[in-house]
Design a protein that fits this description.
The complex is a heterotetramer of chains A (103), B (201), C (273) and D (158).
Chain B (H helix, E strand, L loop, with lengths): L5 H10 L5 H12 E2 L13 H5 L10 H14 L12 H9 L48 H12 L21 H12 L11
Helix pairs in contact in B: 1-2, 5-7
Chain C lengths: L1 H16 L17 H5 L7 H13 L30 E3 L4 E3 L1 H13 L3 H5 L12 H11 L13 H14 L10 H5 L4 E3 L2 E3 L5 H8 L4 E3 L4 E3 L1 H11 L4 E2 L4 H14 L8 E3 L1
Parallel strand pairs in C: 5-8
Antiparallel strand pairs in C: 1-2, 3-4, 5-6
Helix pairs in contact in C: 3-6, 7-11, 9-11, 10-11
Chain D lengths: L6 H10 L2 H7 L3 H6 L4 H5 L3 H8 L4 E2 L3 E4 L3 E2 L5 E7 L7 E8 L6 E7 L3 E9 L5 E9 L2 E11 L7
Parallel strand pairs in D: 1-9, 3-9
Antiparallel strand pairs in D: 2-4, 4-7, 5-6, 5-8, 8-9
Classes of the chains: A mainly beta (103), B mainly alpha (201), C mainly alpha (273), D alpha+beta (158).
Chain lengths: 103, 201, 273, 158
């Protein structure tokens, strides 16, 4: 069963376009639930994109990235059939990763 | 556990099974809704005006009934003492922008809003306005006479005095807004300093 | 299970990058000022996660009977899910009632899994901070199983026709401290509240654009909302009391809408404000 | 009933624990040494503080093509796209997204390696109508482009 990241990696000339959708609430810690209690901060802090296990993009996020985050990045040097992975780690230490092959 | 209004229960028990669809309406309402927070099942009961205005589009209402309802609406209007119509436009702007009040998710202690922007254009710099009602931009230029003030107060208090089955809430007659809030809205509409009456360059 | 996996993979790919293009944000409703904003969303819809979760719930043994919902009859026979959503609401002889998808799911959870209906009815829709409920996930998956199929609610049985009439009456039912009915906001063309476009649900085009796109991923909330939730929340804004999940009023209104929208293809889960 | 009750989903989450650690281990140490979280910049509460934490107020640059909607239907999800014209602004190492009036303006920081296009697309929360900033950190310093996005009130107002 796949993880909760959806990835598409497509070649456009010599550039590989990666689009990823992640399943995460991205709670800021500033919202309250209906009962008036604060909803704890819960957000992705770190996201890495790799191409054949080499990092092409690394990012740090704050809680201002929207829920169920979308990320689009582009890199050169990809070939059809290569592996692209997207990994995240959130502020609770939970992680997820997804992978696809370049089309 | 559902709290139902006695009136609806009574109608429902009278309806029983196998009756026509019209009889099943109160039964469906009584079994489908439940009281929550400060919102009780009495909200589902209609007054004669609401019942008259619940006809599907295209169905004409009885004209005698319509004029009776119009007269009743006109008679319901309470004008402010000394015809002192104009309050504070800045507070009126808050009332016009506030869409809360009387929903079960709202704080019953907080003031209700008029939610004017949901349906009307007012301040020309506010882009997020609805169009269910006519634009009221530059309203003050329509005139500042006593007649105009009384007409506008009446529209806010009970719109059905001029237009039976208008979509607009009866802000005064049903106590959605206080007299002071209505005066503040009047100022928002009429005061030459109100943003409603500023022209956009 | 290998076949299952490959079907699943094909489906999400086509859904994520193909079919859902048709269900761009607030599909069919006048966009105007938000065209640029909506265009930037492209073709991705996070509902795809929820669809998968719905299938997992469907297959997962639960409740005192430790049974899955795989034998649930949504109107086309036990376990038949493809196209079932598009045929709802409909009359079910086993309960002698017209039901929508939520009422039927809760019935199946009781019958097949032995779960008390109060458990589901008390918390059918996500609250703030939730990632989704079981009902929302199941409905998203079931709607996806009807994607592209024409809306065709039952209208053969007398009770189905009665519910259409009841739904029409409810649509125009003005009550509460603001005198609102459904028709107050949804009875005319090209209207909006603030900047939010209001579909004219009395017209086929308006009803079709709206009905076909629910359930929908709501970008404002980050979750999938169902048509049952849409009804409940409209009534909250109408200043009415709390509308029960799967209740006669919600089923009747959905029947009125679905019949008005009949023939248009389902395009849910959609993407909404 | 909350969806966390889905035992199958919860189990899968547990299985995935630790994968990130393994993947990170495969990354060249040299690269990771250059990437530390600019915590002060993420904690800053206004634009001046954010720029101060980065060490420089960026200069305006036409080389940064920053796309955000003029008006957003919902502030919870505002799509943004940053693209750098490398003929005007070469040597981009990092891209930052900032939202002027958020409690913490810094939303995200993206580090590129050689071969990665200076390009990022994501969605951010915008608490109220304000300027959004796209900042590029290059071999020769910080540059920026900014654009206002209006956040509108929603439907029935409650």
């Amino acid at each position: 069963m796949a993880g909760k990241i959806r990835i598409r990696a497509q070649l456009d000339g010599d550039t590989c376009e990666v689009k990823a959708l992640m399943r995460h609430p991205m709670e800021t810690g500033l919202r309250k639930n209906q009962a008036g209690d604060a909803i704890p901060a819960h957000y992705i802090e770190e996201v890495t994109v790799t191409h054949n296990d080499q990092v092409v993009m690394h990012s740090y996020w704050g809680a201002a990235v929207s829920a169920n985050p979308f990320l689009g990045v582009r890199f050169a040097g990809g070939q059809a059939g290569d592996t692209v992975k997207v990994m995240w780690r959130d502020n609770t230490g939970a992680t997820d990763e997804g992978e696809t092959t370049i089309r | 556990m559902k709290k139902r209004v006695a009136h609806l229960l009574m109608l429902a028990s009278l309806a029983g099974t196998g009756l026509t669809q019209a009889d099943s309406l109160p039964e469906a309402l009584g079994s489908s809704f439940e009281a929550i927070n400060h919102v009780d099942m009495g909200r589902l009961q209609r007054d004669p005006l609401q019942e008259f205005c619940s006809k599907p589009r295209g169905q004409a209402g009885d004209s005698a009934m319509e004029s009776a309802l119009r007269d009743e609406a006109m008679a319901s209007v309470v004008f402010p003492e000394g015809d002192d119509f104009i309050g504070d436009w800045a507070r009126g702007a808050e009332v016009a922008n506030n869409g809360r009040g009387l929903q079960y998710s709202d704080d019953p202690e907080a003031p209700n809003g008029g939610n004017c922007y949901a349906c009307h254009q007012l301040d020309p710099t506010e882009v997020a306005y609805g169009n269910l009602g006519p634009s009221l931009m530059g309203y003050g230029a329509r005139g500042q006479s006593e007649v105009m003030l009384r007409y506008t107060w009446t529209k806010l208090w009970n719109t059905h005095a001029y237009n039976v089955c208008s979509h607009m809430p009866r802000f005064g007659a049903l106590g959605i807004l206080t007299e002071q809030q209505l005066k503040d809205l009047m100022a928002y509409l009429f005061d030459p300093d109100s943003p409603v009456n500023q022209s956009i360059e | 299970m290998g076949l299952m996996e490959s079907i699943r993979n094909t489906r999400w790919l086509s859904a994520l990058f193909g079919l859902l293009i048709a269900a761009a944000p607030s599909s069919g409703e006048d966009a105007g000022i938000f065209d640029e904003y909506r265009a930037m969303f492209g073709d991705d819809n996070p509902a795809i996660f929820v669809i998968d979760e719905g299938e997992e719930y469907w297959l997962e043994p639960q409740g005192p009977k430790n049974t899955s919902l795989e034998d649930c009859d949504l109107g086309l026979g036990p376990g038949v899910v493809e196209g079932a959503y598009a045929r709802l609401p409909r009359y079910f002889a086993d309960v002698d009632k017209v039901m929508d998808v939520e009422a039927r799911l809760i019935f199946c959870m009781g019958e097949l899994q032995g779960r008390p209906s109060a458990e589901i009815e008390g918390y059918p829709y996500s609250m703030r901070g939730d990632l989704g409920t079981e009902i929302e996930a199941l409905v998203a998956w079931l709607a996806d199983q009807s994607s592209g199929m024409p809306i065709a609610p039952g209208q053969e049985h007398v009770k189905e026709r009665e519910f259409f009439t009841l739904g029409e009456q409810l649509f125009y039912y003005r009550a509460g401290p603001h005198d609102f009915s459904c028709a107050t906001c949804h009875g005319q063309q090209d209207k909006r509240i603030r900047l939010q476009s209001l579909p004219d649900l009395t017209s086929h085009e308006g009803a079709a654009a709206s009905y076909s796109a629910w359930p929908a991923y709501r970008i404002s909330e980050g979750i999938v909302r169902t048509m049952g939730w849409r009804m409940r929340d409209c009534f909250r804004q109408q200043r009415f009391p709390l509308l029960g999940v799967g209740s006669d009023v919600t089923v009747a209104l959905q029947t009125y809408l679905a019949v008005t929208a009949a023939g248009a293809p389902m395009m849910a889960p959609g993407l909404k404000r | 009933m909350k969806r966390e009750s889905g035992a199958g989903i919860a189990r899968r989450g547990l299985l995935r624990m630790g994968i990130f650690v393994a993947a990170v281990a495969a990354v060249p140490t040299k690269l990771w040494a250059t990437i530390t979280k600019p915590s002060a910049a993420f904690a800053a509460t206004d634009m001046d503080g954010t720029f101060a934490a980065l060490g420089q107020t960026p200069a305006e640059s036409a080389g940064i093509i920053f796309t955000t909607p003029d008006i957003a239907e919902n502030g919870a999800v505002v799509p943004i796209k940053i693209e750098v014209d490398e003929s005007l602004l070469p040597g981009v190492r990092r891209l930052y997204v900032m939202v002027e009036k958020n409690p913490n303006p810094m939303a995200a920081m993206f580090s590129m390696i050689e071969g990665t296009r200076p390009y990022v697309e994501t969605r951010v929360k915008v608490a109220q109508t304000c300027n959004l900033y796209a900042v590029a950190e290059t071999d020769s310093g910080f540059y920026m482009a900014s654009k206002e996005t209006k956040v509108t009130l929603g439907g029935c107002g409650g």
